[in-house]
Amino acid sequence: MKQLKQAHLVFTLCVLITGCAGRSQFQKGYEQGAGDTAKRQYWIEQSLQKGKETKQSDRHVSVYRITVPVDPDAKVKTVPYEISIPVVN
Asked: How far apart are CA 18 and CA 10, in angstroms?
């Protein structure tokens, strides 16, 4: 009986040690990925702000409105609606 308790204790310790090591590696990878995502977002934001500073007055936005008609052969009845498509020149 004593040997069984010792074996169970050794097994439990091995599982805990192995599990903690795996969790630690997972946690490190997760933190590195989160840091990388934050850095990417930072540089995307910097690029967007830099684009706004340079020659924004040269841009011209045209908005095209398109009316989508009703399809008379459709099984589902809809109403005509309008969509707007902005185009930056």
From this structure: 12
End-to-end CA distance of the chain: 83
∠ CA 48-49-55, nearest 5°, is 95
pLDDT digits (tens, 9 = 90+) for 32-69: 777 788 888 888 888 888 866 555 566 788 999 999 88
The pTM assigned to this predicted structure is 0.32
DSSP 46: H
Instruction: Quote the strand ranges of 25-74, DSSP E.
Output: 61-68
- Helix (H) or strand (E) run with residue 55 in it: none
